[in-house]
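Risk register update: the risk that structure generation would not scale has been downgraded. Supporting records follow, first protein first.
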Amino acid sequence: MEVDTPEDSKDTTAAKKKNEMITPSASAADASKYPDMQLAQSIHRLTMVTGPDAALDADGAKAAGIPSDLSDTVMKRVGGEEVENPSLYRHLMSTLGWEGRAGCLSDADLTAMEGRHKTKMEELEKKVEEAKESSGDMEVLDARFEVARFAAKSLSKDEALEAYDKVFALPKLSSGKKIDCLMESARVALFHGDNKKTAEIVDKAAKLAEAGGDWDRRNRLKVYSALSKLLVRDVKDAASLLIDCIATFSCMELCSYTEFVVYTIVSNILYIPRTDLKTKIIDGPEILAVASDMPVVARLVNALYDCDYKGYLHAMVDLQPILVADRYLQPHSGYIMRELHVLGYKQFLDSYKSVTLESMAAAFGVGTEYLDLQLSRFIAAGRLTAKIDKFGGVVETNRPDLKNAQYKDMIQKGDVLLNRIQKLARVVDL
């Protein structure tokens, strides 16, 4: 898997084969492969290793499976014939310090590339006009899509989004083609890290799909929506959408299947009940098929289910660089690590009315001082229903009274409702 690659090259080859076995759906097969989201993932990893806000050292990069020659690979792809994106190249040249390096394109090279792109765009726009004059609506649509896809590959975000807006504005465009256009447009925003624009486009596509989209496009749109929600830390809703798509995933233009399974596990482990964790995650046939390609993530979920808390914390340590190396998970790596800590401590404490700090520390393989600090923070924040007897060295759990909690909630909501009714009555009397 890209985010969690075993060192053995045979395992890497097996992972690629499993990802290649995913059959794109009818609409996915017609989707543009640009912007290339795997390139976006590579750029993110490079930024985490060599960027101004680098978060991974050499050991972390190795643990996340980041190759040492990634900088040269990205430089050649962005400036090479396949992508040729001068605006992106300039941005990376300034942020990653490429200027002056061997193989780095000069400003004159990039200016010449921009001139070629201007000529190419004029040719493509001419094809659109010719299609309008001498061909039908389908030919115009194809020509307009060709303009948009070239812009998505080689021009700036704003130019690409404007080109897709022109596709969407075409008359007599079917709802299916409108959804395809919006999904490709969402990928442009996603590639450039514009989460707000991505969410807006995906929401617009979702409304169209509800009104008249086919099953295939609605299913693919679920994945777009899930990743969009994941980026803005709506992890619970994202988890629900991801687990629904695990058996029907076909959005290879967004991420590999192994990466998709990693997102599914990491998000769902925080929310689904223990019984569902076993049936849907640990024993899920789709997940078992790629479990060997993501050993750290598989070890994490199995250790939690088996109550191997020492192994669970060790897996969390190994998971951290993998989270940082992924563009969807990195913004929330601190949040995810914190929630995983809470999850492990809560599951352990649910089994006891009281337990000594020393015994709990031994179970997790940490020191008592470290555990005391962790527990006190989570208890003070209301994340754990327990209290620490520092003198006796004991942690006592306080099981919440569900009936009393529901009663208090009903009283509070009832009081708010009565206040609103009284205010409304005064308005009516006036």
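Supporting record for the second protein:
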Amino acid sequence: MSVKAKTRFGQVVIGPPGSGKTTYVGAMSELLRSLGRKVAIVNLDPANENMNYTPDVDIADLVKVEEVMDELGLGPNGGLVYAMQFLYKNLDWLEDQLNKIPEGTYLMMDCPGQVELYTVDQSMKDIIEHLTRLDFRLAAVHLVDSHYCSDPGKFIAVCLTSLTTMLQIALPHVNLLSKVDLVERYGKLHFNLDYYTEVLDLEYLLDTFPEDNFTKKYKQLNEALTGLINDYSLVNFLPITVKSKERMLAASQVVDKANGYVFGSGEERSMRNLMGTAMGGSDFEWAKTGELRTEYMGDVREEEMGEHEKELLGNDLDLVDIDPQFQV
């Protein structure tokens, strides 16, 4: 008698503190439920006190950072590292909690934000590897606050953090540029938004550094970092804001491709829908950033220009209006 494999799909939501992980988990869960998908939320952040959702599994039932800090005399970061190591030592508890969730339920895992858990410490990596061996098909969703785009040095740093996390966690990985509706809150960007989402030619950012002896070594450091990031050529970002259902839906499609959910059999999916998700208009450059540039960065779309301002193509297409997602 064959035993049916209990394959489960889900997202491991990670990112620095304040990047919007908990808000994203709540908003994405609501979106997926509105589409008819069964969703369970797993809170793996023992320091998460401001949840905008009710978790189905909560690590606070096993360990709390405040108790660790009080009993062991540790600080916030040391307490969090200890708590995740404690979770790894008690994986049986996590397995039992996850087994209580009905089969076929999509998992949203809200994880801690401390960077050292994904770059130095092995606990999160070991926990995720254990879940993968249990046939959990997971994708890492790494959120980065979009306001870092306005500071070249900080943007290079978060690109390096994203790269390090990708190499450490070793899961299918989707980097999200969160809170993109506030992208220019702390200053105008030096380049268009798509320059930051595609992470191409970071050397151009070096030209924005001041030329003086005080920052000379700092610029040399960033020059070395940009070379490292470009050599791997793994990092890019998808811009999102929880205020836009279209942006969240586009993110869900990308994540579904990453963890393999789109190719599963848990839902009725026609070949048309399958190909639409795999090759949809959301992959085109305008669809990635054009709408956001127009709404949040003051860009003017082509159809809002006068006829004399439109760029001509030099063929019969100059005589018709072309949608930005036009496909041949």
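DSSP finds 13 helices and seven strands in the chain. On this basis the risk owner (M.S.) recommends closing the item.
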